[in-house]
Amino acid sequence: MTASTTGSAGSSTGAGHESRYDPRLANSDLEPLKHQSWGSYNIFAFWMSDVHSVGGYVTAGSLFMLGLSSWQVLVALLVGIGIVNVFCNLVAKPSQVTGVPYPVICRSAFGVLGANVPAIVRGLIAVAWYGIQTYLASAALTIVLLKLWPALMPYAQAGTHGWLGLSTLGWGCFALLWVLQAAVFWTGMETIRKFIDFCGPAVYVVMFVLAGYLIHRAGWSAIDLSLGEVRYTGWASVPVMMGAIALVVSYFSGPMLNFGDFSRYGRSFAAVKRGNFLGLPVNFLVFSILVVVTTSLTLPIFGELITDPVETVARIDSTLAIVLGALTFTIATIGINIVANFISPAFDFSNANPQRISWRAGGMIAAVGSVLITPWNLYNSPEVIHYTLETLGAFIGPLFGVLIADYYLVRKQKVVVDDLFTMSPTGRYFYRKGYHPQAIIATVVGAVLAVIPVLWSNGPGMKTVVQYTWFIGMLVGLAVYYAIARRSAVAATGDSVQEPAGR
Q1: Could you give the CA distance from residue 46 to residue 279 in angstroms, rounded to a whole number?
Q2: What is the rounded CA–CA span in Å between residue 430 and residue 110?
Q3: Under 8 Å CB-to-CB from 13, ≥6 apart: which residues?
Q4: At what angle do helices 189-218 and 168-186 cross, to 10 degrees?
Q5: pLDDT at position 492, please?
Q6: What span, in angstroms and rounded, lies between the C-alpha atoms of 200 and 185?
Q7: Does the 40-485 domain belong in CATH 1.10.4160.10?
Q8: Among 121, 136, 155, which Cα is nearest to 375's?
Q9: Is residue 444 very low, low, confident or very high in pLDDT (cuts 50, 70, 90)?
Q10: How far apart are CA 155 and CA 171, in angstroms?
Q11: pLDDT of 232 strictly over 50
Q12: Closest listed residue to residue 403, CA positions, set 127, 114, 123, 124
């Protein structure tokens, strides 16, 4: 059963695909890749696309508005993104070595059928956020169109020209971006790779030009890395810094869990690690400094602190600058939406019924679902988001913890790849009729404990605890799974990672 751990990848969907794996568990998109071609730059660009969005801009800027001094923010930022870097490397390895996406590698912990539990939970979260991100990008596009053609203003009023809570102009912008994203996705991973290779650097060009323009207008002396009054000093600043660290980790919690879907394409684990280092600590630090410089300069120039980059660009007295800047941030948001909220549910839904749902079909299910939930109404209802998305989000930490505990602590990095694709009762990951109750129990326990401060946010001390729900869920899920799994037959038996026959 022992073989090399070198993986490879690159299957493609196509008619006439023949597989020696059980058809109830495999299709050409879920099987181990035959060619793994992504290098460090591709991983670097993946993280640039993830960070360089309107959401990333606002998140980075918010760190400098917590009442801390600039050096304290930078320390918290580096610690937080350093934690993200370590965790991403942990998630990356099992998928890179085996060449399979997240829902397939989860079969080792949850069972060959039980893996649908984390896959569907992850898919539902992604569908909701996919719709919301598409709506936010369309809202940015709407602002630009109104800036260029003020006569469109009546069609931006949902009360007089609109339906289901969205204006006619809003529907048009949303539909345009929905189609563009679907078109990029439908062309396949190679086109997506090229798209994200472009998106991240493009935003850097706009950010540097925007910063240069604002510095020219206000002068270097107007730059202030502390966006607001410094309210916390000495020991009083420690809890705030811890909260800032948790904010950084929580912001990246989704991409961290999803990262195996992309690391599987890495030509080597070393290349993936280099890309992570460049794309996370290095890139996030540079981007955050650019954000705070740009944001701080909006106060002396426009008379108010503007945290939305699209709004900042819209204030510039140049039609060309407005169009190029806003379109760039819109494209960047499309990039993060595809990599964070489109590709992963495509794998998740395909995993539920591999022979009937291809990767492309799974992605379109997610895309259609993102419209049916009317994300603009969801986004405009904080209470709905609080009780729905954050409740589902409480599962992200435990799912991460179970995966890490299973691969590193229980199995000691040993996975028999062929057994991930068999329904034979003698398969290592069949467990009880395809389900492993230990993993499901650990996930539920971790999620319940993580969701308590979310649902009981007005309780004593809960506003502080709620910042750490991801850590609570992750640690509880990891500890519970390890405690019960190491005593069962799940523990590694001495077999090393098996390379599938024919690779």
Answers
A1: 8
A2: 9
A3: 27, 28, 29, 358, 359, 360
A4: 130
A5: 45
A6: 17
A7: yes
A8: 136
A9: very high
A10: 10
A11: yes
A12: 114
Side-chain-side CA neighbours of residue 91 (13 Å): 29
Residue 5 has pLDDT above 50, yes or no: no
Q: Rounded distance, CA 369 to CA 363, Å?
A: 10
- The DSSP annotation for 307-360 comes to --HHHHHHTSS-HHHHHHHHHHHHHHHHHHHHHHHTHHHHHHHHHHSTTT--HH
CA-based max dimension of the chain: 71
Q: What does the alpha-carbon distance between residue 336 and residue 53 come to, in Å, rounded to a whole number? A: 7
Tell me the CA end-to-end span of the chain in Å, nearest whole number.
Answer: 15
* Extents of the domains making up the chain: 40-485
| Average pLDDT estimate for 98-105 | 97
Q: Amino acid letter at 263? A: S
**pLDDT of the residue at 57:** 79
Q: How far apart are CA 503 and CA 492, in angstroms?
A: 24
State how far the Cα of 109 lies from the Cα of 449, in Å rounded to an integer: 21
pLDDT (average), residues 136-148 = 83
Is residue 38 classed as helix, strand or coil in its secondary structure?
A: strand
Give every CB contact of residue 193 below 8 A, 6+ residues apart in sequence. 38, 42, 265
Q: What is the DSSP letter of 29?
A: T
> pLDDT tens across 13-38, in order?
444 456 689 999 999 999 999 999 99
DSSP 130-182: HHHHHHHHHHHHHHHHHHH-GGGGGGG-TTTSEETTEEHHHHHHHHHHHHHHH
Residue 195 DSSP code: H
Question: Distance of CA 471 to CAs 109, 414, 446, 453, 462, Å?
Answer: 20, 26, 10, 12, 14
Residues 6 or more apart in contact with residue 18 via CB below 8 angstroms:
none
Q: Which of 105, 123, 109, 118 is nearest to 25 (CA)?
A: 105
pTM over 0.85: yes
Q: Provide φ and ψ at 316, rounded to 5°.
A: -75, 135
Rounded-to-integer distance, Cα 260 and Cα 257, Å: 7
| CB within 8 Å of 131: residues ≥ 6 apart | 369, 370, 371, 373, 374, 375, 378
Q: Indicate the residue type of 361.
A: A
Start-end of H helices in 394-502:
396-404, 437-455, 462-465, 469-485
Q: How far is residue 470's CA from residue 368's CA, in Å, rounded to a whole number?
A: 29
